[in-house]
Specification:
The chain has about 90 residues and is an alpha+beta fold. The protein is about 35% helix and about 20% strand. The protein contains three helices and four strands, in the order βαββαβα. The chain has a four-stranded antiparallel sheet, covered by helices on one side. The longest helix is centred in the N-terminal third of the chain and has 12 residues. It starts with a strand and ends in a 7-residue tail after the last helix.
Amino acid sequence: MPEKRVTVASKVGLHARPAALVAKAAAAQPVAVRIAKNGGEPVAAGSVLNLMTLAAAYGDEVVISAEGDGAEAAVEAVAELVATDLDAQ
């Protein structure tokens, strides 16, 4: 199962606008994408509520994973967003 560790780059963490953008991208993938804070339980990345309950703050490391055909590309797409300061856009 492909997975990638990435640091949350948005100054507000995965809350509000960044969470919505990440959830939208995750939900658009052909496989289910999961995200977890380092050492925590993974949750569905396609849900804004799940992302917000992670309480992933700026600078926190998260693990993004997926399984199935297209999982590697799905993990990369979501990881790229998490590693971008989405508040600056």
